[in-house]
Amino acid sequence: MRALVQIRSMSDGDVAAVAAIDGPTRMRETELREELMRPWARLWVAREREFGVVAFAIGWHVIDELHLLNLMTRADRRRKGIARALMNEVLIYGRLKRIKHVLLEVRRSNRAAIALYRTLGFFAMGVRARYYPDNEDALEMVLTFDIETGSVVPQPDEVRLD
Question: Which residues pair with 56 in a beta bridge?
């Protein structure tokens, strides 16, 4: 069963709930407030009626690119379509703003996230060796939009996923 979520822009009132979402890229309230102040930052939250804020996404929109910095779902709400709903909102934003590329890094071991990104049209373009504090590699993934049509331009992986 897929969760019914509402996706909207993050506000200062969401900061405490977002900071409480635990995970490998957990953010402190001060960091989130700093992101809210950056004119190039785009922040979204996913809310469920019963649970409140259950996920968030943060990206930086610079010229014609959107770099997704963070996408996280509360552990007890994962595998319910919430991250997909957030990513769909991010991609709608990208189309509306005529973004050429959406970029992100993902842990090489995060098979669920990689599978999600691939279904949306992302391809692996590079590896950042020992990117994370525990020295795990990150896969660099990119989604390319056709500026005229807004459709995703399929591209083959440039590096191995494993």
Answer: 45, 72
Whole-model pTM?
0.92
117 has catalytic annotation: yes
Establish if 134 belongs to a structural domain: yes
Active site residue 105: yes
Q: What is the mean pLDDT of residues 121-132?
A: 95
Write down the catalytic residue from 35, 89, 117, 140. Answer: 117
Structural domain boundaries, residue 38: 6-144
Q: How many residues does the chain have?
A: 162
| 30-44: pLDDT as tens digits | 999 999 999 999 999
Catalytic position from the list 105, 131, 140, 148: 105
What is the rounded distance in angstroms from the CA atom of residue 55 to the CA atom of residue 86? 8
CATH code of 113's domain:
3.40.630.30
